[in-house]
Amino acid sequence: MPEAELTALAPSDAPAELTPPAPGVWRRLLANPLAAASLLLLLLLVLLAVFAPVVAPHGFAEQKLERQLENPSGTFPLGTDELGRDTLSRLLYGARISLSVAVAVEACVVTIGLLVGLIAGFFGGAVDAALMRVTDVMLAFPDVLLAILLVGIFGTATASPAASLLLVVVALGVTGWPPLARLVRGQVLGLRKREFVEAARSLGATNGRILRRHILPNLLSPILVAVTVDTAGVILAEATLSFLGIGVQRPYPSWGRMISDALAENHLRSEPRLILLPSLALSLTVLALNFLGDGLRDALDPRAHAKR
Fold it and tell me: In the Cβ-directed half-sphere of 300, how many Cα atoms lie within 13 Å?
């Protein structure tokens, strides 16, 4: 093949169908009612979490024992708990905790999973076999159970609240990367045989340049979808650990901890709002992330859109 034709294949990095234009993606995403509503809800949640110190009417650990278990009022819009703490403020700070943990965990997951998947899929052979065996071993253990084991070994109960938060992030990050690594490896195995990669290699491009300019840009769409859906799992895992008492420690509020504390005080019948409100916040957030992930999957796949 003449060098001019090879050059024509390489500079654009990938065929057009693998990198759909951003306006088209947004148009297809917003045309999906569930995805659009989910995106709006998540944006609102992020804003409330970021500005929780301004929006929250009270401090999340501020106790007013003389105002225990009050019904919703102008002072306490969602009432108070058994220690006189404002439920709305704790929900807002709980969102902040959950989203902060999710972002930190996904940063660990993407860093480790992307690195392992890229190396295994691109180089193949013994490197691929060794890395995939490690991945398979990690996948053999349920991630939440493995996180519970790690947290139990390092002892959250005796750690400071800040240390317990860091430990939850590390435990979920260390156990959460194998699915993304396998996804990235599968994508790379297909991409490394594409014409534009072969053209770049024929023109003398180094492995690093091929990975950076030709492979990685084509991984952004599947990674974005996977991270969006996985974030819902991370939030659920954090809530599960906190519900069991080995996750985020007091006085930090967590939706899982709020549910656990309310159940421990037998408020299921007497004050069901203390259980229903954090449960509703958790459910809506997880559903919104899943609906948004489904919408992104459709929006980022123009070939599926073209079939309609």
Answer: 18
Q: Is residue 40 part of a domain?
A: no
Alpha-carbon gap, residue 57 to 169, rounded angstroms: 28
**236: CB partners within 8 A, 6+ apart:** 282, 286
Across 240-253, b (16+ Cβ under 10 Å) vs e yields ebbbebbbbbeebb
CA nearest 174: which of 220, 118, 100, 237?
A: 237
Name residue, tokens 């392992």.
116
pLDDT in tens, 99-134: 999 999 999 999 999 999 999 999 988 999 999 999
Q: Which of 120, 58, 103 is nearest to 84 (CA)?
A: 58
> Using CA atoms, how far apart are residues 157 and 151, in angstroms rounded to an integer?
9
- Rounded Cα distance between 238 and 241, Å, is 5
Q: Quick count: other Cβ atoms within 10 Å of Cβ 113? A: 26
Which pLDDT score, from 0 to 100, does residue 15 have? Answer: 40
Number of domains in the chain: 1
Q: Is 20 inside a domain boundary?
A: no
